[in-house]
Amino acid sequence: MRGTGQVLNQVTILERAFQVDTPDLGVLSVLTPRIKTIVYKNLPSYPADMLRTINGTEFNGVVQNDPVRMQSADLDGVVSVSKAKILSIIW
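Below the sequence we write its predicted structure tokens.
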């Protein structure tokens, strides 16, 4: 989580796909099972959101899913977390 150091484990992301608005390819939709990592804008290392697929392709732009729906026993079921509170999602 951004700014708090909290790490959530054993979370199931309930989004079917993530949309990323890229400056050169437009809005792309990537199915969640094909995603390896999402890192949200975090200066200076990440000037834009970055979505990396399991094949190693990187798309930079704005990830549009906001909030992100997830399920976790530790969170007592299904919750929606604002993109602004998430630093990264790693599968």
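The chain has a mean pLDDT of 96.
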